[in-house]
Write a structure and sequence with these properties.
The complex is a heterodimer of chains A (about 325) and B (about 210). Chain A is α/β, with parallel strands linked by helices. Chain A is built from ten helices and twelve strands. In chain A, helix 3 packs parallel to helix 4 and helix 5 runs parallel beside helix 6. Chain A is elongated and about 75 Å long. By secondary structure, chain B is of the alpha+beta class. In chain B, about 45% of the residues lie in helices and about 25% in strands. In chain B, a hairpin with a 5-residue loop joins strand 1 and strand 2. Chain B is elongated. Classes of the chains: A alpha/beta (about 325), B alpha+beta (about 210). At the A-B interface, helix 1, helix 5, helix 6 and strand 11 of A face helix 1 and helix 7 of B.
């Protein structure tokens, strides 16, 4: 029997996979699945975002699957490849990187899959169908004004930043500084990232306090870091001296504001953002096409003066 | 015959491999997305101030109309004169008025308008989005990211401080009359008219 040339077989395989790829582009309509791609499930705030988005998608009759990018752009890219290959109908997306994630969204768009960004934006006007974003800058302008008044316009402070590749980090920091830098009596002694992580923030704050004994306040880019910073401040016996400010409106920090441990935070509404994203995806899949490119979602400054209204029910 | 089939397969396979390996896009599209032009918020704000905001000042509703409606029918004020950004309970609007400066406080001028309402004309803490969003003329969709959009607010607030507030701080005295146009933010849940604070975008002082 004549042996078949291996090259011949390889060429046939390439052709078959090429034809299969063409067929794949049209298979999205056959499924009823929505993907929820989240930057990290290692942070309770993002768990709420993911579960709210998936829950609402299921209420609307879709099958929802959550993908954890583990703060890794390469993992996120892999998720998008799988989502395109498996024919999901829409993506509810919380990006890992404002620039790096653009290509993933564009690939999904090219495959006919609309993407709805939640909480974090990507630097593109037209890749995502729409982007629902907390108005972080405005929230930190409000926080900054409260911060200035709490310190009577003078004092030394520290800033602990979130992930440097996340636009939210800079929207919050810029909002804060757009106010605080106008007051020359307020001096920033240190500014360091703790990647939105509670334990890292605790370590960072401990180190900063050792080098700078005279700190009056610390502004943290999220509540997880605020709790970490508070732990460090408490352990150093300085909880009466150093005011801690956060951002997110997490339950433990809102309680902390009520108890006098945390000076203030800014509450975001992840459930609202997530559910609205799912609703918008549903509208898109039913034919709507005129979406605004960005929809800011208002945030609320939580201080001891108004905290009672926002205390968690449990 | 086998050779012919082989050649046909090669001819078909090569473009298939190329197609699935490369991302081919129009050059114009790529250039539009990869522009190195940085957004200049200061320039944008300056141009906006001189053109569209000047128009808003001319067309601003009077405090005598806005404030009484705000007290009894705030929804009408929000609908007719207010602008909201995204999902929010905050409305921004621009209105004008005139009245007597009752007191010069550390952070504002306390003005009693001609119909008796007290308004704070801010002279410190000039922050927020009241000017940008109160005009209703700056569309968030124009901006590639929120940083650029927010920098417009910063630049507009700076212009308000430089062009209007600094002059008021130097010259305003209790007992003087003031004609003003200003931007304010109001919340659906709190339309207390005893607490209205405006960022002035135009003002004229008249000796009392």
């Amino acid at each position: 029997m004549k042996r078949t040339n291996p090259l011949y077989l390889l060429l046939i395989l390439i052709l078959i996979s090429g034809l299969a790829g063409c067929a794949g582009k049209n298979k999205n309509e056959a499924t009823n699945k929505i993907a929820v791609v989240i930057s990290t499930l290692n942070n309770p705030w993002f768990v709420v975002l993911a579960e709210s988005a998936a829950g609402r998608a299921e209420e609307l009759g879709y099958e929802a699957q959550i993908f954890d990018s583990q703060n890794d752009p390469a993992k996120e890219a892999e998720h998008f490849e799988n989502i395109v290959a498996m024919g999901y109908r829409a993506i509810l997306f919380n990006p890992t990187d404002a620039d790096g994630s653009v290509l993933n969204v564009k690939r999904a768009k090219a495959a006919g899959i609309p993407t709805f960004c939640m909480d974090r934006e990507i630097n593109s006007r037209d890749a995502a169908t729409t982007q629902l974003l907390s108005d972080n800058f405005t929230g930190c302008v409000k926080l900054g004004q409260y911060f200035v008044k709490q310190l009577n316009k003078t004092g030394n402070y520290v800033e602990i930043l979130g992930l440097v590749g996340d636009n939210n980090t800079w929207n919050r920091s810029n909002g804060f500084h757009s106010v605080v830098d106008e007051f020359p009596g307020l001096k920033m002694l240190a500014q360091q990232t703790a990647d939105f992580d509670r334990n890292k923030a605790m370590d960072v704050m401990e180190t900063i306090m050792q080098a700078n004994p005279s700190i009056d306040a610390v502004f943290c880019g999220n509540d997880a870091m605020a709790m970490g910073a508070y732990q460090a401040v408490l352990a150093a016996g300085k909880s009466d001296k150093i005011k801690v400010f956060g951002f997110d409106g997490a339950d433990d920090v809102v309680r902390g504001v009520a108890e006098g441990k945390i000076a203030a935070t800014v509450m975001q509404f992840p459930v609202l953002m997530a559910r609205t994203s799912a609703d918008l995806a549903d509208e898109y899949l039913k034919g709507k096409r005129d979406f605004k490119t960005k929809t800011p979602v208002e945030v609320v400054l939580i201080t001891p003066e108004n905290v009672k209204k926002y205390l968690p029910q449990n | 015959m086998n050779k012919i089939i082989k050649y046909i397969l090669v001819i078909l396979a090569i473009p298939a491999v190329v197609y699935f390996s490369l991302d081919i896009r129009k050059l114009d599209e790529y250039k539009a997305e990869n522009t190195d032009i940085k957004f200049d918020a200061t320039e944008f704000a300056a141009q906006f101030w001189d053109t569209q905001l000047a128009d808003c000042i001319i067309k601003a509703p009077d405090a005598n109309v806005v404030i009484p409606q705000l007290e009894f029918n705030p929804e009408t004020v929000f609908e007719k004169y207010g602008h909201k950004l995204g999902i929010s309970k905050t409305y921004y609007l621009i209105f004008r008025g005139s009245g007597l400066i009752e007191a010069v406080e550390e952070e504002f001028l306390l003005v009693r308008t001609d119909d008796g309402t007290k308004i704070q004309v801010a002279t410190d803490f000039i922050f927020g989005n009241a000017i940008r969003d109160g005009s209703g003329k700056i569309d968030i969709n124009q901006f590639i990211n929120m940083t650029d959009f927010n920098n417009v607010s910063v630049a507009l607030n700076k212009l308000a401080k430089d062009k209007v507030v600094s002059r008021l701080k130097k010259a305003a005295r209790a007992g003087m009359r003031i004609e003003f146009t200003g931007a304010t933010e109001l919340n659906e849940d709190n339309t207390d008219i005893s607490n209205i604070r405006i960022i002035p975008i135009a003002a004229k002082l008249i000796d009392g």
